[in-house]
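Could you please consider the sequence and fold following this short note?
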Amino acid sequence: MANIEYSEAIVEVLEILEYSDDNILEKIPKKLIKFWERNKSKTYKPNLDHNKSIIEMNLKDKTKSIISMIYLNYLCNDAEVKEISSIINHNEEIYQTELIKNHNSQHLEKVQNKTNKINENTKSTSIITIDIK
């Protein structure tokens, strides 16, 4: 696996799975676990406190993403999948709205800066007319 961040996250995921109940492990495809075993970091040594819940552990963001994917795809029932998918879609809508707002405000700021520069240039280069009497 080319991405170091993902290969380190896989190490954390595999360690969490080592401490998981067999009924959880049975739901995760063996091919996926083998894939992770092949692509995990060979050098990264996680320092996870297994006395804490997953939520309390200091996990990498990529680890949290993989754990979420496992939960959504292999451990949830249909009602939970529907609820989580709804939350994900809602959060994506909020994110996209914020992106648009941010883009629009940046664009507006650029336009205002250009307008201000034009106004400054116009003031400095305006023609002064002198009436000769």
